[in-house]
Specification:
This protein is mainly alpha-helical. It has a domain of 119 residues. The chain contains six helices and three strands; from the N terminus they run ββαααβααα. The protein has a three-stranded antiparallel β-sheet with strand order 1-2-3. Helix 1 runs antiparallel to helix 3 and helix 3 crosses helix 5.
Length: 183
């Protein structure tokens, strides 16, 4: 391609920051998430929390934030294989993709947040749904209850019939033919 870029098989272009005035849009070429990528990201997150029990984790929101950032950074390193719209500090020269340039990209707060929102959050939300954290059927979210499954009116109780009297030992039955025949 003359002025474009060639995508690798399975790579998708994801726009992170829309074009604004003379500034071009910022986009990345991202690989689809694989199980190996997620395992590596979870390992990076676990390394931050190593040696902490659940009570210590709950008492330290900073560590939880660090673990989330480690997960996101590892996943972004694995997924991003190229970009467009990234320029030097003066905004004049396009910065070619390289591992060193990717580290600078991840250190930039605006770029990191945009990439995290577009490439990491969907993975986290999808995993949360798989783990039983989908919208609650008792909740008020759009995904909480399908409209067709809601009853139009209250259920009506069945009409009650009178109960039959149960036989007791004191109640005598009328003798049957077989019982009187042998006497």
């Amino acid at each position: 391609m003359a002025d474009g870029y060639a995508l690798q098989v399975g790579v998708a272009r994801v726009e992170l920051i829309p074009a604004q005035g003379a500034r071009p849009a910022v986009g990345v070429q991202a690989l689809p998430v694989s199980r190996a990528m997620k395992r590596a990201a979870y390992a990076a997150s676990s390394a931050v929390l190593a040696g902490m029990d659940e009570a210590a984790m709950l008492a330290s929101p900073e560590k939880a934030g660090e673990a989330g950032e480690a997960f996101g950074t590892a996943l972004l390193r694995a997924r991003i294989v190229g970009w467009d719209g990234i320029a030097d500090r003066e905004g004049k020269v396009a910065v070619p993709f390289s591992p060193e340039a990717l580290e600078a990209f991840l250190d930039d707060e605006a770029l990191y947040e945009a990439a995290y929102a577009a490439l990491v959050m969907p993975v986290i939300l999808r995993d949360a749904e798989k783990n039983g954290l989908a919208p609650s059927p008792n909740g008020t979210g759009a995904g909480a209850t399908p409209g067709a499954a809601i009853a139009g009116s209250a259920a009506r109780p069945k009409a009650k019939r009178g109960a039959k009297t149960a036989r007791t030992a004191k109640a005598r039955r009328a003798p049957t033919k077989a019982a009187t025949h042998g006497k």
